[in-house]
Amino acid sequence: MLGDYPIKGRRASEIAADVEQAVSTGRLAPGTALPPLRDLAAELGVNPNTVAAAYRLLRDRGVIETAGRKGSRIRPRPALTPRDQIRVPVPPDARDLSNGNPDPALLPDLTPALAAAAEAARRDPVLYGRPSADPGLLALAGAGFRADGLPDAPIAINSGSLDTIERILATRLRPGDAVAVEDPGWGSLMDLLPALGLRAAAVRLDDEGPLPEALAEALAAGVRAVVVTSRAQNPTGAVVTAARAAALRAVLAGHPGVLLIEDDHGHGMVDQPFHSLVGAGSDHWVVVRSAAKAYGPDLRLSFAVGDADTIGRVQGRQRLGAGWVSHLLQATVAELWRTDAAPVARVAAAYRARRDALLGELAARGIEAHGASGLNVWVPVPDETGALAALVQRGWVVAPGARFRLQSAPGLRITVARLDPAEARRLADDLAAVLGADGAGSRLI
Description:
alpha/beta
C-alpha cells in the first residue's frame, strides 16, 4: 500500500498537507492505495472523522481519487500536470501531426485588424472604469448566436474557451460534484476538473456526438453539469447532428437543474451547421465560442452566451480577478469578423479535403477512423505505445490517445491541419503496416 512511507499529522489539514508533499516529491507514487480511514486513524491516534476530512481535502485538490469500496489512491497524475505533457519526441526528419494546431497558412493576416484596433485605442484609450466588453464585438457575437437559433441572452467575453468553462464551473459547482464529459474528449477539460475538485463522468460518443443512453446513465448517476462539444470534437471530430441534438434534448429535459455547457470552439472554421441542446429546459446553460482555431491560438479570446444568472456570475468572477480581456484583442477580433467572414468556407473546405484524403486512404485499407469535422482524425488501435513507436520509426509523430481518454479504448489522434492530401497515401500505408494485415483497431464506442 504505502510501502515505507509513514503518513503524519494530527489535524485534517496536517494529514492532507503531508500526503500532498509526499506526492509532489515522488515519495508516494501515482496509483498508490491509501489506508482505510479507520486503519490510518488508529495508526495516527485520531478520530476517523479527521482522516475522512483529510481525504476529502485531498480529493477536492485533485491529489487522490476515491472509488467507493475500492478505497482511495493517488491520482495517476497530479491535478496540475496537464495531459499535453504526454508527448512523443519529434525526430528532425519526422512529420509532426500531434499538436492540434490550425494551419498558419489558413489564418488571416492580423496586421490590418491590429492596426485598426490600435488606431481606435489611440483615439479613445481604454482606462479603468470602462465596460469590460467591446460593444462592437458584443453586437457581432450576439448576431452570430441569434443566427444559430440561440436566445437573445447576456454575453461574456473571456480569455479562451477553457477559461470560460473554468469560470462557469467554479461559480456553479462545488468540490466533489461530478461533470459529464465526452470520452474520448478534450484532455485539457479532463485536467481542469480535478484541479477544481470536480469528478469526471465518462460519456461515450460516436460520430454524431454523445450517445443519449450514455448521457442518461451519467445523469442518473447524479452529475451536476454536462459539457458537450458541438462541432470539431477533440479528438474524434464528432459533430452533433440535428437528430442527435433532439435525442439529447429529450434526455436533458428530465434534469432541468443540471448545468449545460456547449463548447462550439469549431465556430468559424467548420462547414457543418450548429445544432444546439439549448431548449431542453435547462435552468442554467452556456454556449461557448472561441477565436483560437479560426483566427489563431494567440488571440486568447472567447465569447459565451447563457442564462443571466450564470453569465452574471462569470462576469463578477472576472471583475474580481483579471478584470477584463484586453480591448485591443476584442477590437481586433471584431475587425476580423467584419472584414474576414468570406474565407470561412474556404478554410473549412481545405480542412475537409485534408481529412477526407486521409479517411479515404485508411478506409481503402480497412482501417477504422473518425473525423467528421475539424482538424483531427481519430484512429482506434489495439496498442497505443507500440503503434506510436512504430510510426515514429516511419517518420510520423501523432498524439497518444491516453491524452484524451478516461475509460474508452486506445487510439491515436492525427492532426491533419497541415497534412498535404498527397501525403495521405504514404501515411495510410505506414499505419496499415503498423496495425497488421487486417488493419483493424479497437472500436470507438
